[in-house]
Amino acid sequence: MKIILASRSEVRKKILDDNNLSCTVIPSNVDEDQVKDSLLAVGANPELVSKNLAELKSTKISNKYPDEIVLGADSVISLNNELINKPSSREEAFKILNKLNGSLHYLITSVCISKNGAMIWNFTDQSELKMKKLSDNEISNYLKKIKTETLLAYGVYQIEAGGLELFESVKGNRDSIMGLPIKQIIDYIKLIK
Hints:
By secondary structure, the chain is α/β, with parallel strands linked by helices. Helices cover 42% and strands 26% of the residues. The chain is globular and about 50 Å long.
């Protein structure tokens, strides 16, 4: 079954490819910050923000390609129920890692499949991550290893690219942490084949 991935995430595409799910990439170009701000203004929690963004991405593309199966996804970091956004600069990435430093936080990943402009399935997974207590120098050295465009596109830590070294403990599904709970996606796709 061919699907459309409504994301420019190379990691999400790789997860689909590695699981023999053929996909075409058509980014939704949703203004995530605007959507997050409006949801937070009405009291939405991080899980609801993640779910809404995944659905918005998939239905936006599904409206343009109504007969196709469209997969949208979103991941957010929740620290004490506060949403931590992707950094807009290296300086901001440093501040975010300092905020997470030594703390337990949650990574919430939501996926949504749409067809004919409407959601037909969704799933949200939550992982628990505890960051080591790191010095400013250790945080700076970690950030030097990550390309700026990767940092701004995917957030402050890449589990798949050395980010695991930042953590004291990681509880959750590795694929969800990387952006796609692939087992649940495959289980659902088998049902609709």
